[in-house]
Protein: Adenine phosphoribosyltransferase
Organism: Sphaerisporangium flaviroseum
Amino acid sequence: MTDLVTTILSRIRDVPDYPQAGVVFKDITPLLADHTAFSAVIDALALDLDVDKVVGIEARGFILAAPVAYQAGAGFVPVRKKGKLPAETFEGSYDLEYGSAVIEVHRDAFAPGDRVLIVDDVLATGGTARAAVELVSRAGAEVVGFSVLMELAFLRGRDRLGDVDVRALVAV
Ligand SMILES: O=P(O)(O)OC[C@H]1O[C@H](OP(=O)(O)OP(=O)(O)O)[C@H](O)[C@@H]1O
Ligand SMILES: Nc1ncnc2[nH]cnc12
């Protein structure tokens, strides 16, 4: 196990039965509160990136994607839950591990052909990830990767993301 994986695993708290019975919630707040762990995660997510924009998915994805964009010298684009973005949007609905939601992105968020990395904290069923890839593609960008801090291994592989390169720093 690498030092980074050990550090990440030691800073993620399992909260059983949140937000509903049967779900083990992976709480990243202890990791975010630890400067050494947080900066190591951002460095790893930003390593060797050649992209025009980094997309973050509301809300926990924002916390990771914004510093990754800064570090990579790329712009940051928010994908938000429905009703939060002020200008014209594309929207998509999806199911996730504990519910369903609608996300949006501004129609003019990307220049045609922008190379984009999408960043989130957790990949569980992949519902959010698939909806985000579709949305960003519909907005005219090329999704070159989907990176997450952690992938929930017991929910993995349900049909992932087609051609998109999926990277997880840890599988738990
Ligand atoms: O793979 P999935 O089953 O789709 O689940 C993963 C998504 O669930 C969480 O977001 P949530 O919608 O709970 O939003 P939050 O970041 O605002 O807490 C997490 O941050 C991912 O975006
Ligand atoms: N088990 C889980 N913990 C944290 N975030 C999640 N998003 C979807 N499933 C999750």
Remarks:
- The two ends are 13 Å apart (CA to CA).
- Residues 57-61, 96-97, 101, 120-129 surround PRP (ligand 1) (CB under 6 Å).
- The longest helix spans residues 60-72.
